Amino acid sequence: MKVIEKTGKTVEEAVGQALQDLGVSIDDVEVEVIEEPSKGILGLFGAKPAKVKVVFKEGAKEKAVDLLKDIIKSMDLRVDLDVVERKEFITINMKGPELGILIGRRGETLDALQFLINLSVNKNQEVRRKIIIDVEGYRNRREETLQKLALKLANKARQRGRSVVLEPMSSQERRIIHTALQGRDDIYTFSEGDEPYRKIIISPKK
Questions:
Q1: pTM, two decimal places
Q2: DSSP the chain
Q3: Hey, what domains does the chain have and what are their CATH numbers?
Q4: Which of 7, 117, 161, 189 could lock onto 49 through a cystine, CB 3.0 to 4.6 A?
């Protein structure tokens, strides 16, 4: 939370200076008037400027970025953040050298990081915002890989006439597999097992 105090000849002037320093609009802040301006005696003696306290109300994007920066700093990594905010979700794509540590095995570290960011940002919020955390476009590449794998294993199940069991995946990755194959009329998919070992079965239709 960013807080700044400013003075000015009028309350409006003081608030305007605070907004300029923060680089935000009036809709992004809460204003507390600490002291009203006073003209003093005959407008000369004892005159006092207006004094205000302006508090920047962090939105989901700002909270997510600040938290992510703290985590990155603690890991001593050099990372640039590319943030895109849409109505439905916010995407933060991290770019930089040697960021494999943030992805982890099959994206497990990245998924855990995304889960923690979402949990923190949406805590006690009436309106939840979905935060997608990515590294160098990894999620798109992984999705393409899973889609190709789904088609390959679906064909294998059909040709051999028996089910193919995939390795355990996250719910997000299982959804990609199910979606990739939902239009097929020669096979069907379902999941079985408990998290985090839940896996997809691809079976041929009789």
A1: 0.68
A2: -EEEEEEESSHHHHHHHHHHHHT--GGGEEEEEEE--B--BTTTBS-B-EEEEEEE---HHHHHHHHHHHHHHHTT---EEEEEE-SSEEEEEEE-SS-HHHH-GGGHHHHHHHHHHHHHHTTT-SS--EEEEEETTHHHHHHHHHHHHHHHHHHHHHHHTS-EEPPP--HHHHHHHHHHHTT-SSEEEEEES-TTS-EEEEEE--
A3: 2-56 (no CATH), 60-136 (3.30.300.20), 140-204 (3.30.1370.50)
A4: 7
